[in-house]
Amino acid sequence: MHIKTLTIHGFKSYRDQTATEPFSPGHNVVVGRNGSGKSNFFAAIRFVLSDAYASTSREERQSLLHEGLSTTTTLSAYVEIVFDNSDNRFFTGTDEVILRRTIGQKKDDYSLNKKTVTKADVSTLFDTAGFSKSNPYYIVPQGRITSLTNAKDHERLALLKEVAGTKVYEQRRAESLKIMAETDAKRVKIKELLTYIEERLAELEEEKEELKDFQDKDKERRCLEYALYQRELLEVGAQLEEIETNRKDETAQLKGKRTQFTLREKEAESLKGKLADLRVSLSETSVCKDAYSAELEDLVKARTELECVIADLESAGEQGEARRASLEEELEEIQAKIQEVETELMEAVPEWEDRARAEREERSRLDIAQATLDELYSKQGRISRFRTRSERDAYLKKEIAAIDAYAASQEEQESNLQLELEGTQRKMQEYEEKALELDTALEGRKQTLANHAAELAALQKQQAELSEKRKYMWREETKIKQQQDNAQQQLRDAERNLASTMDKDTGNGLAAVSRIADRLQLEGVYGPLYTLFEVTDPVYNTAVELTAGTSLWHVVVDTDATASKLLDVMLKEKTGRVTFMPLNRLKSKEIVFPASNDAQPLIKKLEYDPAHAKAFEQVFGKTAVCEDLTVAASYVRSYGLNTITTDGDKVDRKGALTGGYYDVKRSRMDAIKAVKTWRPKLEELNRQHQEIVEELARVDQEIVLVMGKIQVTTGQQDALLRTRDGHARDAVAYHREKDRLSERAEAFELQLAELERERVAQEARRDAYKKELGTAMAEALTAAEKAACEELAREAEKLKKSLIALSKLKNESAERKNALEVDLHENLKRKREDLRGKLESLGSLATTQGAASLGDVNSRKRELKALRSSVKSLEAKIAELDEEMNRLSAEVDSTNEELEQLQTAQAEDTRGMAKQQKSTERYLAKRELLTTRRDACNKNIRDLGVLPEEAFEKYTSLKLERLVKQLRKVQDGLKKFAHVNKKAFEQYNNFTKQRDQLLKRREDLDKSAGSITELVEILDQRKDEAIERTFKQVSKYFSEVFEKLVPAGRGRLIMQKNIDREPDADDEEEREQGSKIDNYTGVSIKVSFNSKHDEGLRIQQLSGGQKSLVALATVFAIQKCDPAPFYLFDEIDANLDAQYRTAVAAMIHELSASAQFITTTFRPEMLVNADKFYGVLFNNQKVSSIRSITREEAREFVEQEAVAQ
Asked: How far apart are CA 27 and CA 1145, in angstroms?
């Protein structure tokens, strides 16, 4: 066996994975510079094979991981060794053994052939392969030779002991001596206990006689007490039988009363239901009466109003004609005034236009004169303003440019004003045309008003019929709504009663299941069990309810997949808890029921869907219903069934008996029945209510439609009536707007004239500037210019006075014209249109009311007759309802009286049952007291212990007084034994047993001490033999190895003994008890390098190289004592002389024939006979690697290293 390959990753300087080529089974040499990683290479092998890194701290483990200059951090490292196992030295059955050790900051793992193993498994593997822990010299690290060279004699002796394996013997000897000391301590303790027990036995021997007398007396006492207790026990038994008989009679009577109480309770519930129905009927009748009364009141009111309308219609015709004549006369007066005002206006308008035109012309002449005058004044000012002609011309050019710009803006403004004027004139034309259209439209509406009046009468009749129908449906809706509220309240009470019979989580769960099933549209959810069946006979309600228990709330589903879906949603939403019954999971067994009418299958008393049969067989299939408890118990024993009585008493096939009083008010089946009764009723009432609501909605729509038609017709009629007023107002508005636009057009014309005047003035000013621009600079105005200034000033003053007079005349004409226009349009024409409207409205009213006065008055009278008939009919109905209310009230009173009688009887029965219950409780309390006395007697009898035979015969016939007297006498006799040791016999026996046990234990300890002493002697002998045998072998191999290394010399090992001091008596005794090896003080070495006959020198007298050679010879000698399959030497030839290095290399070459050697060296001698060579390299990041090299490369490296040193 040898090391085949080595793989290192992350260990010390080997950051990257490094794998060697296969090693030679002979001699392998590793070379490399100092610090390159050779020692780390050997450390990696020791990391796997030896105990050098067995226990490491966190810091030591971190130091084994690579810490170079790289940026990455090494978190774990491993070393893997592949062994050639062709000789099967490792008992694995494979030719190769792969051993890996991985270390991290927290973990330390081993793997063997790619499988994880423990450290103990690895140690066992090496032990079975012959790797001795006591001889670790198959690995010689750097420095080991130096330590051996400097070792003292006693250190070499310790090394020899380690090689001989004496440490094991010493450990076992120390353990044996420890056990021996513990054995001696136990022997001393046992001796003390035996002394105490012997003394105590002597004392107990004296107490035994006194105890014997006490026991005789005590036996007689126990016999007397037994006789008393037995007599009391018989008396208590008789009283218990009597009480039980009385209790059964009371129970039978109480059961009969409870049966009557239950029947009356059901009758009372029935009466309460009847009373509730009567009250609902009474309430409905009262509501109907109130509705009819309200309707009657409305009809009476309508009748009164109709009578008034008829009277008004009859008087309306007489007043209409007088009103029309008055309005027509007033209209003629207004028309005459309008013609007069229009004539005056026709005269005023031309006069106003002439005066306005004359004013504009005069203002134009004034503007021209004023502009010429201003220019002359400006010229006069420029003569004094400017000193040179060029300054004046520059100013004039600037003014001409400003005038040109202003003229352009004036032209644009004039264009805009012209457009505005044209638009205003177009609008004036449009308003005039619209006013004409309105006048034409006011003519043809009289026939239209008459048609609308006839249509309106027909629609009002249809509305009245629909309103009557709606009133009837309102009464029906009110009646059904009241029934609906009552049914809803009853259902709510029933559901509340049902919910009170289950826990809150179950109620929430059932509601959640229904909600989730609807939301997810799950078809396989059939609902809770109680909703899926009906009981054929109410007699079995109690039996069904108590048999099912909480199974009534279990939800039946088709498959467990459906149940899983529901549960997932319920878990997410956290909504209650339920139990599901998946039909695909339920398995029912066929049960054989007795062929007798005394016991019938309970499941046959139910009606249910066959599709749900498995669920009902699961709950009710194993239960039979019987008439009484005796029959039920007999069938349980004979058929192995669960049975139940109609009263709810259950007998389980396992022997349990359950029963007692059952409160029918808390019946789940009654609550379920109430829910099932009221839910369909409520649904039917909801359906009827919905139909009435829909019909009411349809009638409301028809009424709304008719009213809409009425509103449309009325609106059209009103619109026609308002049309005249509206058209009249529009016509006035159009005329007013036309006048406003006329005024606006005049304003535009005035602005255009003003712009024209200003334009002319600016042109005259510009012409003057241009004319002056070409003239020479003068000192003042010419005489002609001065004369023109004076003339123009006089003319301007004259034009201003003339303009003022013309403006005054124009304003007077304008005021007259405006007053006439306002009076015409705002007063006279508006009054005319109002009068026309009133006449037309009066004509329309005359048309509609005229028809009413002729034909519709008769219709109104017929309507009045129908109203009177309806009033009479309603009065008859109200009378009938009064009679019905009286009948219902009487029936309610009768039912109340009957219910009160029942409740009185129930109260009396309740008090009677309470008394019987108290009586029964007294029986039970007395029975409990007697039972306690009986149990106390039995306990006292048991406490008496084992009694003699005479106790059952000797005192049983004695009278009670004599028994008591004799017992007192015995108790007085026992008083003198108050201080007797009642456990003397027991203590004597216990101490005797303890003494025997201690004697046996002492004997065992004596034998154990002898065995331990013998073992210690054997261990000492074996240790002596081992050290002497090892010393002889090492000494022999040392001489042989030394002669091979130094052929001319001789070497030997000398065992030093303790002979220098005189031993005293104690030392002699210890030496006899101890080992002979304790007399050895050390191992010395004597060698001769040049003679085989002289005495030789001690190792302290040798040179450094000679000491190293002697140390190597010692290592080789130790290795020959316990050969290993491979050896690892790290620079063992570092301190040797050249001739000795050659000898050592030759020896390694010789030994490599039978073992593998891996060595490191800096010397060429080791390379001569080596088989394979490896070089260790490292880069600038201090990362090591190893590769195979040739002999020449290894020799070249060693020579370079020697030169460097």
From this structure: 10
